[in-house]
Amino acid sequence: MNWVQRKIYLYNVTFGLFMLDWWERCLFNILVIVLMWFIFYNGSRYVTDFCKSERVLGNQEDLATETVTELQPENGEVILTNVVLSLNRKKI
């Protein structure tokens, strides 16, 4: 039994697939593949959007000023939010 066969056997035993018929096992495997595709596809979209954002690329000063201007109260409102800004970071 080589490494791949052992991993398939471990997968079948862990999820109880060894007791199912061939068509039930196929249906379960299709559901697992669709779920994994959904997770990886949406995860990759999130990671690419996050990596393209201003928070990762730099531009911290503009982001800080936009955040402060968004938090300015209007019509006598009171905003109970603390904003921590670290603008004196070393740029790498």
Automatic annotation (TrEMBL):
It is found in: Endoplasmic reticulum membrane. InterPro entries: Ser_palmitoyltrfase_ssu-like. Keywords: Endoplasmic reticulum, Membrane, Transmembrane, Transmembrane helix. It is a multi-pass membrane protein. Pfam families: SPT_ssu-like. The chain crosses the membrane at residues 22-40. GO terms for cellular component: endoplasmic reticulum membrane. This is Uncharacterized protein.
